[in-house]
Amino acid sequence: MGTFLQQLINGLELGSLYALVALGYTLIYGILEMLNFAHGDVYMVGAFLAAGVAALLVHNELAVIPAGLVVGLMVVVAMGGAGLLGVGIERVAYRPLRNANRLAPLITAIGVSLFLESAVQVWVSPAPVLVPSNALVPQTVLHLGGLTTPLTGLMLFVIAIVLMIALDAFVFRTRFGSAMRATAQDREAATFMGIDVDRVILVTFFVASALAGMAGVLFGLWHATADFFMGYLLGIKAFTAAVIGGIGNIRGAMIGGLLLGVLESLAGGFISTQFQDTFVFLALITVLLIRPQGLFGQPLTDRA
Amino acid sequence: MAQPRILVLIAMAGIGLAACGGSTGGGAATNKPDKVQIAAEGPFTGDQASIGAGALKAIQLAVKDFNAAGGVNGTQVQLVIWDDQHSAQVAQTLQAAGISDPTVLGIVGPMNSGVVLGSVTGLQSATPPLPFVSESASNVKVTDSGWSVAHRVNARDDAQGPADAKFMIDQGAKKVEVMDAKSDYSTALADQTEAALKAKNIPTQRDSVKAGTTDFSTIITKIHSFNADWVYFADEGPEAAPFVSQMKQSNLNIGQNINFLGTDGEEDSSIITKSQGAYDGAYATNITADPAGVSGSAAAAYVTEYKAAYGADSLSSAGPFYGSAYEAAQTLLQAIKSSPVNNGKISRTDVISHLASDTFTTIFGSVKFNSKGDVAGGGIYVYQAKGNAMVVLKQVSG
Amino acid sequence: MEIRRGEIVCLLGGNASGKSTTMKTVIGSVRPAKGSVWYDGQEITNWNTSRRVAAGIAIVPEARRIFPRLTVLENLMMGAFIRNDKAEIDADLDRVMDMFPRLKERRAQKGGTMSGGEQQMLAMARALMSRPRFLCMDEPSMGLAPVLVEQQFETIQQLNQTGITIFVVEQNARMALAIASRGYVLQSGRVVLAGTAGSLLENPQMQRAYLGI
User: Fold this and answer.
1) Is A15 helix (H, G, I), strand (E, B) or coil?
2) Domain for residue B17, yes or no?
3) C chain contacts of residue A192, beta-carbon cutoff 8 Å
4) pLDDT digit string, tens, across residues B82-119
5) Tens of pLDDT along chain C (213 residues)?
6) Are B352 and B233 in contact (CB under 8 A)?
7) Residues B328, B231: one domain?
8) How confident is the model at residue A301 (pLDDT cuts 50, 70, 90)?
9) Contact residues, chain B to chain A, C-beta under 8 Å
10) Is the bond leading into B110 cis (omega within 30 degrees of zero)?
11) Torsion angle, CA of A174/A179/A180/A182, rounded to 10 degrees?
């Protein structure tokens, strides 16, 4: 039982990381009906930006300025940088193709993804780099009964949940959020309302990418590393989470992410890590067979 | 008394010149090949760039040094770079260009066993066959299948697996967590080690991580419940630092309540800093020697040269094969240099026979390939993370 | 083609005659290949849609195009997207809800769950939320029961009486000419007939082609 609960905790922490990235897939898909395949790599770039700030401000395991300030700067630079990167990708790679065949932006997205991975690998580092978390956040391990989690893992989980609630409020409680949803549902009708659709799309990319950047920071503080390939697998998992939750649906992406993390953890813990992904994708197929629109998605007929 | 001696020397020099001129049948010009190319192949980008990038730099350095020493009778060797991205399909496409160009005389690489096994038939069936010298492919099938093109300077899985198992048993291992990273190399090696452990009645638990995995909490929880006293991870490298950091976060302290044995990719001192010290005390075996860890002036000079060429801290991203890659390039280049030149051309067939018969001088000393293409006496070296370096403990065998 | 302040002008024509394209050129989602668009004495050919909406042009699009997964209230607020005068927006909200009491009852319901007639009301109310001076209506009668069509045209007339200039595209020529002061007839993208509603109703060519006489 203890092991089960421990694997559940592991899964929730990993799942909250999936969820943060899955939100980006779902936001962008919701607006443009396109898969931003490069989103996982935006997360990777965010992690590298955070690692870069930390490398500049931490020497010999000691922060040059107060650790809290370093972490704050990491957050600002990673979120801002990833956000601007997302906006740039949209502007350069996707906007010119907005009215093209649906396959065209997907292929461009794969190209952007490969470009980002290669760029970081060649210009930054082919090997994993260190995020000096020892100097930045307390390395406390929390114990509850027989269960343990590093403080940074709990931090990841809590901040991810807070961000998701904030995003949910932004999309469902603000005027701009309504405009985003209106654009997602009927782009031309949204322009009839005087909504500047290009701006809505840019803001969507910024928000989605900034969240991925934040996921990169949280990951760095949790596991103290960043490498150029880290966005690939995570991107696929996050995308899977978004599909399980119902792509385009924000709450679906959150639940889908947490669910996928837990599923993976339990499958690895109690069945086999060698076939872990097999079970995860089996779950995806099962969900899609029973509910093709995902757990929280709109029934497909509704889209007509 | 001194005069006659000088006369004798001059006379000998004259004979030498005459003999030299005679064997080439008229002037040095025909002895000079028109064009000589070799290829460097490996995962220079992609998921395994962490092992490929440093190896490529080593090969580039080897070619540069060889050319500076005169090349092949005055002809500069050109290096073509084949980035197979750890994919046999990509490798086949790249190799096709070399197969059809008779001035491409050999390959340093491929680095991954899976790539070799997926592309070797094309190299073998070419006319003439295109030889390769790998610096890191360790799967036994690479040289056990009778291909005359196949050579490697590194040791084999069937040497490493049993040696790794024996090392852990000698250190008192009771229960071992065996992990692989889901690649041809890593799974085969983990299988070998696990089998050797089981043969000695050591209980094992087996887990796999996929390339690019960054969260290991599931496996770490399993290590706790299994009560393992050793963790064995056959891996090319990139996963090690986050993995051991997470072990430490979860109260598995290497050298205190758990021991860690990694393989080639984990024989890398940068893991110590990248894990913020969590890796300190861990062991790793390597199928090649680390020039920075062995004695010998040639190896030491090479380390100095590598740092001078690529920066003082370049060893931290050089990967585990920057020594063997240089070594492999040296053997191939020397075999080419020894091959006869006819009408400005060198035949790959001759390069293959020289690879088979010659003894080569490398940064690790003399090297000779046996009839399969393996290095006679290719050793397994155990290293330990101490302070901020990987220190050679000893050479081991199964 | 010209529409004067306070008028109801209708644009008639068969399928694919270019009626909807004309309307989209007015609102700005289609740029004309040739020619220009003028509004209130200014050339607006190169204005984007949001600038036109802010200047008082609004559209009730063909097939209503309400936002199906936004609530009625959210749909209405989208109509007022370009406005920032919160108090006035609330007042207008009350006003359109008085005008269409069904919308008040269903304010929290998702737009897509309402009937065709209710959606048409919502589309019209949404357009009104931008306080238009010039309202374009694309096929307001499409897909509605005859009794609802009648109501619809009554509403259009009422709006016109409050001072809103109305431009209506219709297949139902008889209905449109009944409320319009003038009309244009399009065929393959060209104006083939123009005149007062009365003259068009009398025109024999018109009678044959569009009025079924």
Assistant:
1) helix
2) no
3) 27, 29, 49, 53, 58-59, 61, 65
4) 999 999 999 999 999 999 999 999 999 999 999 999 99
5) 889 999 999 998 887 788 888 888 999 888 888 889 999 889 999 998 989 999 999 999 988 899 999 999 999 999 999 999 999 999 999 999 999 999 999 999 999 999 888 999 999 999 999 999 999 999 888 878 888 888 888 999 999 999 999 999 988 888 888 899 999 998 888 888 899 998 988 888 888 877 766
6) no
7) no
8) very low
9) 45, 47, 49-50, 52-53, 182, 206-215, 217-219, 221-222, 224-225, 237-238, 241-242, 245-246, 249-251, 270, 273-276, 316-317, 319
10) yes
11) 130
Assess if residue B26 is contained within a domain.
Answer: no
Residue that has been written with the tokens 């394209």 in this structure: C21
Buried/exposed A52-72: b ≥16 CB within 10 Å, e otherwise: bbbeebbeeeebeeebeebbe
Best of A31, A172, A193, A196 to disrupt the C interface by mutation (most C CBs within 10 Å)?
A: A193
Distance separating alpha carbons of residues C94 and B68, to the nearest angstrom? 88
- The count of structural domains within chain B is 2
Residues B386 and B242 in one domain: yes
The residue ranges of every structural domain in chain A are: 17-231
A235 touches chain B (CB under 8 A): no
Nearest CA in chain B to A6: B221
Which residues in chain A touch residue C126, judged by CB atoms under 8 angstroms apart? Answer: 193
Distance of CA B206 to the CA centre of its chain: 27
Q: Are the C-beta atoms of B231 and B247 separated by less than 8 Å? A: yes
CA distance B90 to chain A (A): 16
Is B12 part of any domain? no
Q: What is the CATH number of the domain that holds B42?
A: 3.40.50.2300
C69 contacts A193? CB cut-off 8 A: no
Residues B218-258 have pLDDT tens digits of 999 999 999 999 999 998 777 899 999 999 988 899 999 99
- Minimal CA separation from C9 to chain A, in Å: 20
Closest CA to B115 of B145, B144, B129, B136: B136
B51 within domain boundaries = yes
Query: Which domains are delineated in chain C?
Result: 1-56+132-213 (3.40.50.300), 66-131 (no CATH)
Residues B218 and B146 in one domain: no
Structure tokens of C48?
């984007």
Tokens of A187: 């782009």
ipTM: 0.90
Torsion of CA A4, A8, A14, A16, to 10 degrees: 180
Q: Are B41 and B91 in the same domain?
A: yes
Question: Is B49 in Cβ contact with A126 (below 8 Å)?
Answer: yes
Domain of B326, in residue numbers:
33-154+295-367
> Do both B164 and B148 map to the same domain?
no
Beta bridge partners of B204: B176
Residues of A whose CB is below 8 A from B213: 233
What one-character DSSP code corresponds to residue C140?
A: T
Please check whether residues B249 and B146 belong to one and the same domain.
no
Note whether B78 and B101 are same-domain residues: yes
Q: Do A189 and C65 touch (CB under 8 A)?
A: yes
Q: Is the pLDDT score of B20 beyond 50?
A: no
pLDDT at residue C183, rounded to an integer: 92
B288 phi and psi, to 5 degrees? Answer: -135, 160
Return the residue of A nearest to B44 by Cα. A126
Interface of A with C (CB under 8 A): 175, 178-179, 181-182, 185-186, 188-196, 298, 302
What pLDDT is attached to residue B30? Answer: 56
Give the minimum alpha-carbon distance from C128 to chain A in angstroms, rounded to a whole number.
11
What is the per-residue pLDDT for A299?
56
